[in-house]
Specification:
Distance between the termini: 35 Å
Largest sheet: 5 strands, parallel
Order of helices and strands: EHEHEHEHEHEHEHEEEHEHEHHHH
Strand content: 15-25%
Number of helices: 13
CATH architecture of the largest domain: 3-Layer(aba) Sandwich
Number of strands: 12
Oligomer: single chain
Helix content: 40-55%
CATH topology of the largest domain: Rossmann fold
Number of domains: 2
CATH class of the largest domain: Alpha Beta
Length: about 300
């Protein structure tokens, strides 16, 4: 059996999968498929550590492939590689595919190899973890029940979340990033539900730095803003769990937060899963927003005193 990680490239253009195979065959055990159905057959019959799929394919689109792979082989790391800023597909890749990274064509060879290598190392670690009996449990503070923090200056969102979940866990509200940091400094937060602009302030740097510093906290974005590049940044640097639009449907919000709470509990029981959400180090260039604001967020999130740090 090969000691290399198995990587599957999926694209309806044969020259593209062949190019990627030549690029990666020295480091990985490479499989290729030129259709979604062929890709799913390969996943069914082989242990695939990383799948890299194009989005626009005639028989089955990439998001459909990744959604099926997520069900068939949940520890397979899923990467979207496409030349189109298709917003619906990008959002679907979060909500349905729970992808690891999103890469645009034309790609940088180094970026592709580095991204796949990071994904493969994580997949190999998760496969080893799954093979263990695993009673691994993170330390918890019994005096603090993990809850939900809503970051939004629209009180309708807080009231909706409170109505849906107040019987199950504590719900906190923050109308600014400063208020959110104050809550997180004294309370243990499992899930954050946040807009990307709150009180006229860009919250995306907060979401990205939070994932770098505290990957155990699960983020659901709820917003009316639908910029493709922003959403890709939230995938690659923020590993957001769900992306929902406004005006929101309560049923969709409930399902998304339910899934986020369950995933937080899973991360607490199996801390090695946190490697699945390791992101590149965030700096003022990748975080976006005002540089001094970003620097402040880095300092404040790094220095949270107890609850968030204890959950790591």
């Amino acid at each position: 059996m090969s000691s290399k990680a198995a990587v599957l490239f999926v694209d309806d253009e044969e020259n593209i999968v062949n190019t990627l195979k030549m690029l990666c065959k020295s480091k990985f055990n490479v499989f290729t498929a030129t259709s979604g159905s062929k890709a799913l057959d390969i996943v069914k019959n082989n242990q695939i550590h990383v799948i890299v799929s194009d989005q626009r394919m005639p028989e089955m689109q990439g998001i459909e492939v990744l959604r099926e792979v997520r069900q068939m082989s949940p520890h397979t790391m899923r990467i979207m590689l496409t030349g189109y800023a298709d917003l619906a597909a990008i959002i679907g890749s979060i909500n349905d595919g729970e992808i690891y990274r999103y890469i645009y064509k034309p790609w940088s060879n180094k970026d592709v190899v580095d991204t796949i290598e990071a994904a493969a190392n994580t997949a190999l670690a998760l496969a080893a973890d799954a093979a263990e009996t695993g009673n691994e449990t993170a330390a918890t503070d019994n005096n603090r029940q993990p809850g939900i923090l809503v970051i939004d200056d629209d009180k309708e969102v807080y009231h909706a979340v409170d109505k849906l979940f107040s019987g199950r866990c504590k719900i906190w509200s923050a109308a600014t990033c400063d208020e959110a940091l104050a809550v997180m400094d004294r309370e243990q937060i499992a899930v954050i539900v946040s807009d990307v602009f709150v009180a006229r302030q860009d919250v995306t740097p907060f979401i990205k730095i939070l994932k770098e510093q505290h990957p155990e906290i699960v983020t659901v974005v709820l917003t009316k803003f639908n910029d493709a590049n922003m959403v890709v940044g939230l995938i690659n640097h923020g590993q957001v769990f769900r992306f929902l639009g406004k005006p929101f449907h309560q049923a969709q919000l409930r399902v998304s937060i339910d899934a986020a709470l369950l995933y937080y509990a899973k991360l607490r029981q199996r801390p090695r899963l946190l490697s699945r959400h390791r992101v590149e180090k965030v700096d003022t260039a990748t975080a976006g927003g005002n540089a001094s604001f970003t620097a402040m967020l880095m300092t404040r999130l790094r220095s949270l005193r107890g609850p968030a740090a204890a959950a790591r």
